TrEMBL record:
Keywords: Allosteric enzyme, Carbohydrate metabolism, Cytoplasm, Glycosyltransferase, Pyridoxal phosphate, Transferase. NCBIfam families: P_ylase. It is found in: Cytoplasm. One of its GO terms (cellular component) is cytoplasm. Its cofactor is pyridoxal 5'-phosphate. Coiled coil: none annotated. This is Alpha-1,4 glucan phosphorylase. It comes from Rhizobium setariae.
Length: 821
């Protein structure tokens, strides 16, 4: 008789059939037995869920195979820690990458269901805000595509950032309810649960070997619970895991308090725990907001590290080889506290000596910097940090002492240099510098464009670069062509396959062969037809949502980004006002019909950004209702920018606005998406625009304005915006119109602070670059009137953007930083 305690050989089921007949039968089976609906009464959302479950089953086969392969081969795992993952809708992504789109379409068609209708019902996952989160999503897909074993770690936000509505031109923030009806893509992992502590005390004890050991005794504890989402690579080669953490209280209800009538107090601990995973980027203008933000960052970092160490020890039973088998990538400073937490876990929990733990930590962790803005390199008040994470504060002081002594003795650093690299900013109220912590605790610090990387060495990390001159390196960002060409622009993808074959689907740089068709009249005609269809589709969406009719023959000039002064939506709006004045003043000229489309969210506490949204809407209302414009100019602000809206905007753009103040945008990825889809770029020499110019050719991109060096020099020389404004007739008139209430007759002083800011300091060089920007726009008009020249440039943009694939970026990370794959 077999001993039931003995392990037996496990036989796995065969891969499921993907023919439409089998798929249709499986969809009916899931609809009936998993959702409990008869096909005769099923609603579109039921069909969507049933379809996802059928596709998910096919993914699971590959997911488990990928996990077994990594375990059996002992391959190095990459762990990507990010506070954001802007993954968007997953159904089309999974179907496309599995090669199942047409089979599922046919299966649903036999059941009387349209895949396009049901797929549009899937909510966007509210797990991010902008470029940082979308980059993380592209990287996760590319790691699976390039066969890199990887986990992404983040927070399973119930409400994400917010759902943006526009009321009387103002941004209104509402909760995003994407999880209201569950998420069929995810799996709860009850076994992967970890205690996370806050506050309390630290005690010193003597271990059996006679050494002092430290024990952190938190005053508060919560449980981090895991939810896993499979991330499918191209052609289903590998499926990786996005693991998101949700917070649960140790005791969900204080029953004694509840029975005593204190119903609110009884749930206090539950509400406090659950607040950790409710909202992305809680406003940090108040002490309570700052504390919640720091709690979130430690919560997900600690849970992720505990999970990583548990998995590693389970396989290897030692941490001596951690850096050989594990690569941890910090996506910006949000998870920087992971440096101190990994040290705590290694020293206090697993018994490593401080210096040995430091070597393991530094060799395991690497850090991606995304900003040159000092205020975006997070710092935390020392009293808050010490109260919330007392043991980590001790460790940070220990790291600081080690590095500062090294800098003084080995590099002869001056007092000024010591102050610059210190983990504690002593210049005012003492604060912990998370950017410096991430730098010190990493063996690699990478920028995300060539310009950004060089500026990083000269500005925010100048002295740390002198201390560690070999650590900073560049990894220019990229985008996944599956999402940002194949899926969002099927018309162009079909045309490319018909023209140059299928090689570009696997090797994006094979798009280069399209160069041969840039001047081909027949191909230009087909390319233009695809663009027009995409513009018609976007125009229909805007008309249905906003009641505004757009002419698809007009130039679609699109500026979609997080609303921030350095991204200079204000410059674009002022130019729109100037153009409005010129069209009315000179009706005899041949003006190019143009639609300026804006979208993006402003941080809830960012007053000027929200005022810029209001200005855009006030200007739009005035221009769009003025018959003197004769439809030659329209302005649109589309609410609630997200991945799904971007998938409509990107293929429809004729002109892509990438006009940030030079030296302030780290890279940008929207610029790459638009250019890949055949839009011309108007932009400054900022971020990845520099490399894009080099790849697409200076004649195929419209560059204007000051470069980063000139911006820095202008600030040093005492930039005088008033003189510039008074010397520019068009700018002065536009600012007068805005500042005097032409667009805000109900409140003439509404925008006076924006205008006064330009006259007084103009830090973001809006006035400084206005004339160059306006001239560049008129040059764009000239190119537009020459249709053959325009489409030749547009085609060359598509042909030459292959290098900006996130597959290339990930291969560089894997080879040069992670030593994986």
């Amino acid at each position: 008789m077999k001993n039931l305690s003995e392990p037996s050989e496990i036989s796995y089921p065969p891969l499921r059939s993907n023919d439409p007949v089998t798929l249709a039968a499986d969809i009916i089976e899931r609809l009936t037995y998993r959702i409990g609906k008869d096909a005769k009464v099923a609603k579109p959302h039921d069909w969507l869920t049933a379809t996802i479950l059928v596709v998910r089953d096919r993914i699971i086969d590959r997911w488990m195979e990928s996990t077994r392969k990594t375990y059996e081969t002992g391959g190095k795992r990459v762990y990507y820690l990010s506070l954001e993952f802007l993954i968007g809708r997953l159904t089309r992504d999974a179907l496309s990458n599995l090669g199942l789109m047409e089979e599922i379409r046919e299966a649903l068609k036999t059941l009387g269901v349209d895949i396009d209708v049901v797929a549009a019902l899937e909510p966007d996952a509210a797990l991010g805000n902008g470029g940082l989160g979308r980059l993380a999503a592209c990287f996760m897909e590319s790691m699976a595509t390039t066969d890199i074993p990887a986990y992404g770690y983040g927070i399973r936000y119930v409400h994400g950032l917010f759902r943006q509505q526009i009321a009387d031109g103002w941004q209104v923030e509402l909760p995003e309810t994407w999880l209201a009806h569950g998420n069929p893509w995810e799996f709860e992992r009850r076994e992967s649960a970890y205690e996370i502590g806050f506050g309390g005390t630290v005690e010193s004890i003597i271990s059996p070997d006679g050494d002092a050991r430290f024990v952190w005794k938190p005053a508060e504890r919560v449980i981090a619970g895991a939810y896993d989402t499979p991330i499918v690579g191209w052609r289903g080669k590998r499926v990786n895991t996005l693991r998101l953490w949700t917070a649960q209280p140790i005791d969900p209800i204080l029953l004694d308090a509840f029975n005593a009538g204190d119903h609110i107090g009884a749930l206090r601990e539950s509400n406090k725990a659950e607040s950790l995973a409710r909202v992305l980027y809680p406003a940090d203008a108040t002490p309570a907001g700052q504390e919640l933000r720091l709690r979130q960052e430690f919560f997900f970092s600690s849970a992720s590290l505990q999970d990583i160490l548990r998995r590693h020890r389970q396989q290897y039973n030692t941490f001596d080889n951690l850096a050989d088998k594990v690569a941890i990538q910090l996506n910006d400073t949000h998870p920087a506290v992971a440096v101190a937490e990994l040290m705590r876990l290694l020293c206090d929990v697993h018994g490593f000596e401080f210096n040995a733990a430091w070597e393991i930590t530094r060799n395991t962790i690497s850090y991606t910097n995304h900003t040159l803005l000092p205020e975006a390199l997070e710092t935390w008040p020392v009293p808050l940090f010490e109260r919330l994470l007392p043991r980590h504060m001790q460790i940070i002081y220990g790291i600081n002492a080690k590095i500062l002594l090294e800098a003084r003795k080995e590099k002869n650093f001056t007092d000024q240099q010591i102050r610059a690299i210190s983990l504690i900013d002593e210049s005012g109220n003492r604060r912990v510098r998370m950017g410096n912590l991430a730098f010190m605790g990493s063996h690699s610090i990478n920028g995300v464009s060539a310009l950004h990387t060089e500026l990083m060495k000269e500005t925010v990390f100048a002295d740390l670069h002198k201390l560690y001159p070999d650590r900073i390196n560049n990894k220019t960002n990229g985008i996944t062509p599956r999402r940002w060409l194949n899926q969002c622009n099927p018309g162009l993808t079909s045309l490319l396959r018909e023209t140059i074959g299928d090689k570009f689907l696997d090797e994006t740089e094979a798009l280069q062969s399209l160069n041969d068709y840039a001047e081909n009249a027949e191909f230009q005609k087909k390319f233009a037809a695809v663009k027009r269809e995409n513009k018609i589709r976007l125009a229909q969406l805007i008309q249905s949502r906003m009641g505004l009719k757009l002419d698809p023959s007009a130039m679609f000039d699109i500026h979609v980004k997080r609303i921030h002064e350095y991204k200079r939506q204000l410059l674009n709006i002022i130019e729109a006002v100037s153009l409005y004045d010129q069209i009315r003043s000179h009706p005899e000229l041949d003006w190019v019909p143009r639609v300026k489309i804006f979208a993006g969210k402003a941080a809830p506490s960012y007053h000027n950004a929200k005022l810029i949204i209001k200005l855009a809407n006030d200007v739009a209302r005035t221009i769009n209702s003025d018959p003197a414009v004769r439809g030659l100019l329209k302005v649109v602000f589309v609410p609630n920018y997200n991945v799904s809206l971007a998938e409509m905007l990107v293929p429809a753009a004729d002109l892509s606005e990438q006009i940030s103040t030079a030296g302030m945008e780290a890279s940008g990825t929207g610029n790459m998406k638009f250019a890949l889809n055949g839009a011309l770029t108007i932009g400054t020499l900022d971020g990845a625009n520099v490399e894009m110019r080099d790849w697409v050719g200076a004649e195929n991109i419209q560059i204007f304005g000051m470069n980063a060096e000139e911006v820095a020099q202008a600030r040093l020389d005492g930039h005088n915006p008033r003189a510039i404004i008074e010397g520019s007739r068009e700018l002065a008139q536009a600012l007068h119109a805005i500042g005097s209430g032409v667009f805000s007759p109900d409140d003439p002083n509404r925008f006076s602070s924006l205008v006064d800011g330009l006259y007084q300091h103009d830090w973001f060089m809006v006035a400084g670059d206005f004339d160059a920007y306006a001239a560049a726009q008129r040059a764009i008009d000239q190119t537009w009137t020459d249709e053959k020249s325009w489409f030749a440039k547009a085609i060359r943009n598509t042909a030459r953007m292959g290098w900006f694939s996130s597959d290339r970026t990930i291969r560089q990370y894997a080879k040069e930083i992670w030593k994986a794959g």
